[in-house]
Model the fold of this input.
Amino acid sequence: MANVGGTDRILRFIAGAVLAVVGLKPDLVGMASTGALHWVLLAFGIVMIATATLRFCPLYPLLGINTCPTKK
Done:
């Protein structure tokens, strides 16, 4: 069941792409490539892109959120 709406999908995809790029190329933003932070950013980016693509966020049902328009 879809629970991620159109605007939410676009914002998730953009944020996920930015996080993934920063995770892959931390030197682009002046971040050191040592440590685990760039891997965490990459993981969050991939999750954001996946939830935007699948139109489902597993946290939304737990929080009672649904940004997908309901059909009448």
